[in-house]
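Repro:
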Amino acid sequence: MKIMLDTNVVLDVLLKREPFFQASYEVMRLSALDALEGYVSAAAVTDIFYLLRKALRDNQAAKNGIEKLGQIVGFVDALGEDVHTAIASDMSDFEDALVAAIAQRCGMDCIVTRNTRDYRDSPVNALTPDELLKHFT
């Protein structure tokens, strides 16, 4: 199963944000164990880095976090065609529309996010970490 991880799920793990940490961690653990293929949009990595650096107040620690993330998931590029698809999308948030466009182009089975409502109009189904984990129990 190929999944696209939304920024909030990644940050839940990297920043150990409760009460979301455990379910998000389990999803990323499945990716680390190759039980599923986890991916993050390369376009989202800049946001993840920025928020990580801001929370940790340490540039090197943020870089280390991104390096560890890259050992667990793959990074998928955003292409110009994804930008055009996102612009034409009915989704109200451009960033989410871009994630959905990339996920669709890359043949992802789902987008894993805590904000499934944001992906209501997505061409790729969105699941919460808990919903995804039900498939593995």
